[in-house]
Structures are given as structure tokens and as C-alpha cells.
Amino acid sequence: MINGGIMEISQNHSQNLAADIRTKDRGFTLLEVIIAMSLLTVGLLAVASMQISAMRGNSYAGDVTEGATWAGDQLEKLIALPYDHADLDDTNDDGADGLLDTGDDADYTENQDRYTVCWNVAIDAVTNNTKTISVIVTWTDHGVQKHVSIQHIKAR
Q1: What are phi and psi of 104, to 5 degrees?
Q2: pTM reported for the whole predicted model
Q3: Domain around 20
Q4: CA distance 153 to 142
Q5: Of 2, 26, 67, 89, which is the most buried if we count CB atoms within 10 A?
Q6: Torsion angle of the four alpha carbons 9, 15, 17, 20, in this order, in degrees rounded to the nearest 10
């Protein structure tokens, strides 16, 4: 009888707990839903902001890569020329001071799409019987002028 009595009390207690849980579990309140949606919105806005920043960074990296490619291409062409070639003359006699000149002060200028490729030559700037070739590529990004430059010393 004792075992049977314990069993009945145990069953009654289990039924009471199940009834209490059912009456207390009525779903989310409106306040809980609003808080959850607010947190989700803040998280999504942070992710969107990060995505926009990443896209800008990728765009800038693409521009720098393309500018460096133009500069490298032009430098390879100039390196392949003989030492006394006309394209390797210092036409404005600015020497080492003009190595990073862009635009009007450069010895030579070419336009490639939205990039401007300039190069300047300094004779005997580092040591005798050498020409220092500086290739500068400029472009405009959101109203700001950017540039990439590469230098090479060509011996006689």
C-alpha cells in the first residue's frame, strides 16, 4: 500500500506540474518580440555596414592593382630599350629632383583609360653611367588623386 500511495502522489504531482507548465507557457510577449527584432536589426545593419566597407576596400585594391600593372608594363618596355634611346633622355633636365614628377613636369606622359602613365629619367642620379627611371601612374578616385610609382636603375 505504501508503494501504491507513493505512486499515486507521484502521478498527481506530475500532472499538476504539467498543468502549471501549460498555463504558464503562453508564447512570447509583444515586448520580447520587439526586443528580439531590434537586436536582429542592429546586427543586420552592422553586417551591411561591414559589407559596404569591404566593397570600397576591394574597389580601391583593384584600382591600385591596375595602376601598378600599367606602371610595371611601361617600366618593362623602358627597360628593354637601349641605354641611348630617346625615350630614356632627361628632356627637362630636372635630374633626381624630378623622379616623382607627375603631369606637366614629367619627361613623358601617356593616357591609358582613366590612368595617366608618366615617366621621368634622371641621368647619373645614383652613380655615374646610370639612368634612374621612375614610372608614375595617377588616377582620380572619388575626387582624390591617387598614384603608384615604380623606379628602376638602368646601367650603361
Answers
A1: -65, -30
A2: 0.65
A3: 2-155
A4: 34
A5: 67
A6: -140
- pLDDT tens digit string along 62-112? 999 999 999 999 999 999 999 988 888 887 766 655 555 555 557 677 777
- CA 14/CA 114 separation, integer angstroms: 78
Asked if 55 contacts 61 with a C-beta cutoff of 8 angstroms, the reply is no
Q: How far is CA 55 from CA 45, 50, 51, 65, in A?
A: 15, 9, 6, 15
Decide if 98 contacts 120 (C-beta within 8 A).
yes
Q: Distance between CA 120 and CA 132 in Å, rounded? A: 8
User: How far is Cα 43 from Cα 128, in angstroms, rounded to an integer?
Assistant: 63
Q: How many domains does the chain have?
A: 1
